[in-house]
Specification:
The chain has 600 residues and is α/β, with parallel strands linked by helices. 24% of the residues lie in helices and 27% in strands. The chain has a 25-stranded parallel beta sheet that branches. The radius of gyration is 42 Å and the shape is rod-shaped. The N and C termini lie far apart (90 Å).
Length: 600
């Protein structure tokens, strides 16, 4: 203390009382290194009590490296000048509720061993909380900051910034939040969370980010909740790592934005994108149900770790060291208008598509994979079942898994996936087929045509006659897409034709031409009639090499609509007519199937 050899704590009572009596509202004080008890702090606050406002009022204060023992409360005080609490230690709880710092507030290096209450505090100037350590819970609810810096701060307890307002720049660079943190309903200007670590749940629900927000190299070990947040001018979110879920449901992005996220789950239900957006992901399962966007939006998988914006070094992904790959999976697109949607290098094997609007206009780029039918051979009762590999929808898996006669390998629906059937799935397959055709990917389009026909064949709203026709189309050629099936039937028909020709169609002997006529007397002109005897039905050994050769010629000619010129019995004529009708059709189906697989 000025004029004394001791601090305020160790002054004799008379000197302390004289000092306190000399203070007035707005007085500046310097108590660096002083130890304050709750009683001594209360006496200091009473000494600067302002009757006009009913609140303590200080000028410039310095509590640098001061120690506040026990639970202390600053009683809605106002600091009109600079307030320095740098390096101070609060051994108990510290209550700054409704305190106003009219100029700069310096808490750099301060340590709060108990709870710290900054509810409704106002920092009109710059708040320096660098290297601050908060062991207990920290409550900044409804606080207002001009600008603030929390660089290297450590929050070991709950950190509550609910309804806080950052009017200027807020920097949380290299900050560690060891437990849950909430910024719900906060209003944030320009904000930086670069290289910060959130070890528990981080909540930004209903927060408003008025300008840029920087999460470069931030790490979320729990969930990151941005539900109903408003990103008014943000142009980038990330790159960041999240071991849990990133919740963007109900959020709004007002400007063109790029999201760079390595997270296990990304939920964008009912998210509104008011401008173009690019979402680049790693390790993520994405739920995009009912998202709203009217401008081009791209969801893409990133093959390599994201480069940091500060030094372009790859971002560390230690939270995903056990993951075999960085595959990005799409969980749902239900309710989305896909007219402006681009999907690149995504796993769509579990994606729910029913209810998607303008699905035929979606662009699928790169290696987008779909679910496959169960591999291998299965037994359904007494006969084997083996599926030809094709792209399928997850919802077809769910529907087939519900059937009583389902073979193993069809995936069961997850809770909440709904119960789509053939009536709902046929239009989805049709739309995706058109999307593949527009992308000049004919083999992919063929798979979805097959799925569309399968759903039509099993739908309940088609007549029995049409279903029988589709069943025959499926059995003979796999809807014109299974060349091996059509060729198999063609070979079987040709073999049957050969056998029938050898048994019944070829005559016993080839009929010989015979000339008949009458020789008139006197040497007049002779007229002969050339005729041929009717073919005789075969008898004896009908299956000889010679008859086989003739039957093969007849059959091969019938496949290409040509007559062999071979004399046939009546039965053989009808057999050839039937062969010339059926076998070219099977040959055409086989050619069509091959064309659908190689066409570009």
């Amino acid at each position: 203390m000025p004029g004394h050899t001791a601090c305020l704590t160790h002054l004799i009572d008379a000197d302390r009382n004289a000092y306190l009596a000399g203070l007035t509202p707005g007085s500046s004080v310097d108590h660096r290194g002083t130890t304050f008890t709750p009683l001594l702090l209360s006496e200091l606050l009473n000494a600067v009590h302002d009757p006009a406002t009913g609140r303590p009022r200080f000028g410039t204060v310095s509590f640098n490296k001061a120690t506040f023992d026990g639970d202390v409360e600053f009683g809605s005080a106002t600091f009109a000048g600079d307030a320095d609490f740098g390096g101070a230690t609060f051994t108990g709880s510290a209550a700054f509720k409704a305190v106003t710092f009219e100029r700069g507030a310096r808490l750099r290096g301060a340590t709060f061993m108990g709870d710290a209450g900054f509810g409704a505090v106002t920092f009109e100037g710059h708040a320096d909380l660098r290297r601050v350590t908060l062991v207990g819970d920290a409550d900044f609810e409804s606080a207002a900051f001009g600008s603030a810096e929390f660089k290297w701060a450590v929050f070991k307890g709950f950190a509550g910034f609910k309804r806080v307002t950052f009017k200027g720049q807020a920097r949380f660079r290299l900050v560690t939040f060891e437990r849950r943190v909430t910024f719900s309903a906060a209003t944030i200007g320009s904000c930086t969370f670069e290289a910060s670590i959130f070890k528990d749940h981080a909540e930004f629900s209903a927060a408003t980010f008025e300008r840029d927000i920087d999460f470069n190299n931030a790490t979320f070990e729990g969930d990151a909740d941005f539900e109903s947040a408003n990103f008014e001018r943000a142009v980038r979110l990330g790159p960041l790592v999240c071991a849990g879920r990133i919740l963007l449901s109900g959020a709004t992005f007002g400007r063109p934005v790029t999201l760079l996220l390595a997270a296990r789950h990304l939920e964008c239900r009912r998210t509104r994108w008011l401008a173009t957006a690019e979402i680049r992901l790693r390790y993520t399962t994405v739920d995009f149900a009912h998202a709203v966007f009217e401008y081009p939006l791209t969801i893409a998988a990133e093959t390599d770790p994201f480069p940091l914006l500060s030094n372009l070094h790859p971002m560390r992904e230690t939270l995903f060291t056990t993951e075999p790959n960085a595959t990005v999976r799409m969980a749902s697109l239900r309710g989305v208008d896909a007219a402006h949607l681009v999907l690149s290098d995504l796993d769509l094997s579990e994606c729910l598509f029913t209810g998607t609007v303008h699905l035929d206009q979606v662009r699928l780029e790169g290696a987008c994979t779909f679910a496959a039918v169960p591999p291998g051979r299965h037994w359904r009762g007494w006969h084997p079942v083996q599926f030809t590999q094709r792209r399928t929808l997850a919802e077809e898996h769910h529907w087939r898994a519900r059937q009583p006669s389902a073979v193993p390998g069809w995936n069961q629906a997850a809770p909440g996936a709904g119960r789509a059937g053939p009536l709902q799935l046929a239009p989805v397959y049709r739309a995706l087929r058109k999307a593949f055709e527009d992308g000049k990917h004919e083999p992919g389009a063929a798979d979805f045509y097959y799925g569309e026909m399968e759903m039509r064949r099993h739908a309940d709203d088609i007549p029995r006659s049409e279903r029988s026709l589709l069943t025959a189309y499926w059995a003979l050629s796999g809807y014109g897409l299974r060349a091996s099936r059509a060729l198999g039937w063609l070979a079987a028909c040709m073999l049957a034709t050969v056998v029938l020709m050898m048994g019944f169609g070829l005559p016993q002997d080839d009929p010989k031409q015979r000339a008949t006529g009458t020789v008139p007397a006197g040497g007049d002109t002779v007229a002969f009639v050339i005729d041929k005897a009717d073919p005789l039905n075969p008898t004896g050994n009908r299956f000889t090499t010679k008859r086989f050769e003739k039957a093969v010629k007849v059959t091969l000619n019938s496949v290409v609509f040509r007559s062999s010129g071979q004399d046939l019995t009546t039965a053989g004529t009808y057999i050839e007519m039937t062969s010339r009708l059926t076998e070219p059709i099977l040959l055409g189906l086989a050619i069509l199937a091959i064309r659908n697989r190689v066409k570009r």
